[in-house]
User: Fold Arf-GAP with coiled-coil, ANK repeat and PH domain-containing protein from Amazona collaria.
Amino acid sequence: MKVTVDFEECLKDSPRFRAALEEVEGDVTELELKLDKLVKLCIAMIDTGKAFCTANKQFMNGIRDLAQYSCKDVLVETSLTKFSDTLQEMINYHNILFDQTQRSIKAQLQTFVKEDIRKFKDAKKQFEKVSEEKENALVKNAQVQRNKQHEVEEATNILTATRKCFRHIALDYVLQINVLQSKRRAEILKSMLSFMYAHLAFFHQGYDLFSELEPYMKDLGAQLDQLAVDAAKEKRDMEQKHSTIQQKDYSSDDTKLEYNVDAANGIVMEGYLFKRASNAFKTWNRRWFSIQNNQLVYQKKFKDNPTVVVEDLRLCTVKHCEDIERRFCFEVVSPTKSCMLQADSEKLRQAWIKAVQTSIATAYREKGDESEKQEKKSSPSAGSLEPGSETKEKLLKGESALQRVQCIPGNAACCDCGLADPRWASINLGITLCIECSGIHRSLGVHFSKVRSLTLDSWEPELLKLMCELGNDVINRIYEAKLEKVGVKKPQHGSQRQEKEAYIRAKYVERKFVEKQPASVSLPESGTKGLPQSKEEKRHSGPEKSLLAGEQGVAPSSKVWGRKAVAVSSDEARRESLFCPDELDSLFSYFDTSSKLRSSNDSGIQQSVDDSREHLASTISANSLYEPEGDKQEPSVFCDSKQPSPGLQLYRAAFEKNLPDMAEALAHGAEVNWVNLEENKATPLIQAVRGGSLVTCEFLLQNGANVNIRDMKGRGPLHHATVLGHTGQVCLFLKRGANQHATDEDGKDPLSIAVEAANADIVTLLRLARMNEEMRESEGLYGQPGQYSTNNHTEMQYRKCIQEFISLQLDS
Assistant:
């Protein structure tokens, strides 16, 4: 250790010692000033840093508030949250740095100044005091006279004691000086080193923190570049759309109003209407009206709860109003009140009236579907299932259309792009589609593809069976047979819409990927010769027995039908009903969709129909859910040495109930209404009737088959279905607009054939349909637009026929 003041010089109390003391004392005084200043600056720095951290924390809280505000934008919310968390960590690191600075600089240096320098000052005071006392003792000792021995001894003793005390205190003072000079260096360096290590730790923590954040920041930067490109593209698209819309004529709001029964949000139609108040002043107010959830509602502001005008659209009717001064008015009438509304134009008024009427019909259909589902759940069938028939078992369990269709192989993914869980279907092709591909299919036209929702639309039983008979795997084997050969890559669900649209058009419209057929038999536009009739048709083609009352005696088991009596043999009376639940659904769906029972006067009719449906559905066994196989012909009847023409292939497959072969024939260009000249000009639809399959008929009808084309004997599909006793097919053809008044070469219409065959089910079905036509004609003659009026006599006949139909089914 270097000695600042020599101890030997201290004992001598030489001028060098005094000069050294003076220099040291001045240095310590200046050191004290410097240290005090440094401590004050440190305190100011810490206070400023804490203020910075407070401001930084407020800024970070602002970022978090912005992140919460941007909760709908995942990218912005995630980024701002990460950044705010990082800044919060940096604030914590700053606080740690300031705490360490306070401990290393402020506290440590203040301790050095207060303790060590204060000891130096105290030692200095004692040294100065004893030094003064020593000087006084020396002066007094020098002034004592020789002759005064007593004073000489006293002065000598005081001087000796003073010198001894001086040496002791001077040595202590010198020691304190030397220790202070040595310690100040260590204290200063120690405090500064601690301060620098605190900074080192702070920057290391910050570096590590931002190193972890750096990959995310780089990814975000790349996304920002793409966002900038997308923003520029969107800006161009919006400018183009702005320019296109600006060129259109929007002088009227008529073009903006459309209604959609299958809207995903449940809103069929919405728009502004004037509503006449029910107060004494009859004021008119403009309100925002909408049709949703089978209700008519309106609201003044978007945030207001909608006010319900009509609770249930099934209980209301809509009509024009021409007897008031205002134009374009119409009235919605319910059992409890009426609401007068006014549109902005005649076109808008017609659109609203049509939307309300369509919603009324939809409400009836949806309520009917719900009741049918409840019936199936509450009254399970008692029949046994066929072994190994999983699809039938699922049908009996009452699964949704989506579940039934998606369980078919290949249907769990879109037929054209492979997207999982498709919710749409093409009913004439028998495939499932995603929402984007379904939109492309709609653009092809219904003659190529008929699109329906698996979740939003109601599904008839025959359509569900049709979907279960085909499926994506079957259709793709036909329409994508040459896909690998031509080298075309099938689009994926992430492909561009233009790519998908081109592929779908090439697949279904141009049929580029369908395998070409080999050379077909060179026959005229006809099929094979000698195609035998089915056993049922042979049985009905013999001598016909008239069973009308008055021509023969009425048997005891005869049933009265309106004004005629039909005699039924005891065997026929005991036979089971030909209706199965699916056919029964088709029967009543026909009346539900065509008769449009809307007024309160028809509630009894509708109730009778519902009661009959409920009772009959509960009494029919599960085995009748599936159509009988019928009498199939031997395949050898259709064997040729060469590939038949597409039309002949369709004709044969229709009889054999082979839907995949029928789909393949249509893909090869078969005409759906192909005529077999050598088989009495029979069509594939007539062959499907002979084959006994309702699903085959449905497939042909969905693909454009004409239900009224007749053969050489003047018999159409409805005639043949009646002759063969296929009740479900009769119902299907009536539903699709078959002419039940057409007569064959013998002058017989389907009703006459059914009466002569004593087929009670078909007689009932045809008579109900005929009465329904009379009711519709009566409505057209006597009813007002938007209202329903019924001839009383026709209504009584309709009720009586429904009741007799119920009685016949209960007796059988």
In short: Residues 111 and 273 are 85 Å apart (CA to CA).
